[in-house]
Design goal:
Elements lengths: L7 E6 L4 H12 L4 E8 L3 H11 L3 E4 L5 H7 L6 E4 L1 H7 L7 E4 L7 H9 L3 E4 L2 H17 L4 E3 L2 H9 L8 E8 L9 H4 L4 H4 L9 H9 L1 H14 L6 E5 L5 E7 L4 E5 L5 H9 L31 H11 L3 H17 L7 H12 L8 H18 L1
Parallel strand pairs: 1-2, 1-5, 2-3, 3-4, 5-6, 6-7, 8-9
Antiparallel strand pairs: 8-10, 10-11
Helix pairs in contact: 1-12, 2-3, 4-5, 5-6, 6-11, 6-14, 10-14, 11-13, 13-14, 14-15, 14-16
The structure holds nicotinamide-adenine-dinucleotide (NAD) and magnesium ion.
Length: 387
């Protein structure tokens, strides 16, 4: 950003999570560029209190109202407005001074605050991919109507976004999303039957929240990202390819009409795509790590195995069916991931239940927001019933 630019005022939804904390590190890296207006969290009140004391935002919100009193009391010596409840998150994003809302909260809960932020004309730094999975078409329409940009934070989508800089209307022949393959990349079908949550929570390259870590192990993360890519970049599902690249150095690629392929590379550090989304179109300097090509042994690629990891195929299927099916996929997955994390189902049962949900929940072609909320609710109830 030019020195004369005013500071960008940001709200971070889910500031206590993995992306939220790294967003605050980006702010610390460039305090002259960014100002924190609001921080929100779900449960982790101690972390939120510490963040509020350090960054002195105008407002903080804790979604879990049972923690509100504790938050309010801990910050009473500071001029910080304190709110409780999920509705307060949907409201705080509309505050006049905010320029950018970072959606770093996890799951379907990201949808409504994102929509409210768009309607209030805020730019969205989108980490919460579930929002685009569930309601990509609707969100795009609103973003167009309210003339607000949606800037990707997800590393693959940031990579594609960076590859597309300067390409104006050049036709995209294909998007190539890279996937690390997760901790079970080399596991046999039989071995996958007995993997534990402790194994699944150990991602080889990235340190992330629990839900996305399980999604990465099951390849659902890549499935969600295929759907996210469709809505962010307007390509057909068949023009989105997934390739497994275990080193996570190439974050994704774009192939153009002439056959040229552009790739974006970097260390596996989410602060880079977060900072690009916040400072776009400017690249700010950073002290973050650098790649060293002289010590990099190899960059390898392989096709994803859809038989061992059916989730990727289920996501393509839901995307091609369209309507409320991606919403069903997402809700069923959220319930399954939570059940797996609570030792209620086996790792491999997740795909089976998600497939069953896609077959069981009624199809709706052009769902409204209310219909999507109903689909989410019905799917959760249905899958929870099976578990
Ligand atoms: P996380 O679990 O570490 O953090 C989630 C945050 O959201 C926490 O601050 C939590 O308090 C808040 N939250 C959770 N449920 C909420 C609810 N119902 N209402 C309000 N707030 C709620 O998750 P994360 O890994 O930071 O991921 C956040 C989002 O970013 C996800 O959509 C994920 O897919 C996406 N993402 C994460 C990474 C990563 O490296 N962590 C990379 C790409 C995309
Ligand atoms: Mg990603």
């Amino acid at each position: 950003m030019a020195e004369t630019d005013k500071k960008r005022v940001i709200a971070i939804l889910g500031s206590t999570g993995s992306i939220g904390v790294q967003t605050l590190q980006v702010v610390e890296e460039h305090p002259e560029c960014f100002e924190v207006y609001a921080l929100t969290a779900n449960e982790r009140v101690e972390e939120l209190i510490a963040q509020a004391r350090k960054f002195q935002p105008e407002a903080v919100v804790i979604a879990n109202e049972a923690k509100y009193e504790q938050l309010k009391e801990a910050l009473q010596d500071l001029p910080i407005k304190v709110y409780g409840g999920y509705e307060a998150i949907c409201q705080i994003v509309q505050s006049q001074p905010i320029d950018i809302v970072v959606t770093a909260l996890v799951g379907f809960a990201g949808l409504r605050p994102t929509i409210e932020a768009i309607k209030a004309g805020k730019a969205i730094a989108l980490a919460n991919k579930e929002t685009m999975v569930v309601a990509g078409e609707l969100v795009n329409k609103l973003a167009h109507q309210y003339k607000t940009p949606i800037l990707p934070v997800d590393s693959e989508h940031s990579a594609i976004f960076q590859c597309l800089a300067g390409e104006a209307d050049n036709h995209i022949e294909k998007l190539i999303l890279t996937a690390s393959g997760g901790p079970f990349r080399t596991f046999s079908k039989k071995e996958l039957e007995t993997v534990t949550k402790e194994q699944a929570l150990k991602h080889p390259n990235w340190s992330m929240g629990a839900k996305i870590t399980i999604d990465s192990a099951s390849m659902m993360n890549k499935g969600l990202e295929v759907i996210e890519a469709k809505w962010l970049f307007g390509v057909c599902p068949d023009d989105i390819e997934v390739v497994v690249h275990p080193q996570s150095i190439i974050h994704s690629m774009v192939q153009f009409a002439d056959g040229a392929v552009k790739a974006q590379l970097g260390t596996p550090d989410m602060r880079l795509p977060i900072m690009y989304a916040l400072s776009y179109p400017v690249r700010l300097p950073s002290t973050f790590g650098r790649l060293d090509f002289t010590t990099m042994k190899e960059l390898t690629f392989e096709a994803p195995d859809l038989e061992r990891f059916p989730n990727l195929q289920l996501a393509y299927h839901a995307l091609k069916m369209g309507g409320n099916m991606p919403c069903v996929l997402n809700a069923a997955n959220e319930v399954c991931v939570s059940a797996f994390l609570h030792d209620k189902i086996k790792f491999t049962e997740m795909s089976r239940l998600i497939e069953r949900a896609l077959q069981s929940v009624d199809y709706q072609l052009n769902p409204t927001l209310d219909q999507l909320i109903a689909t989410d609710c019905i799917t959760r109830r249905t899958v929870e019933g099976w578990i």
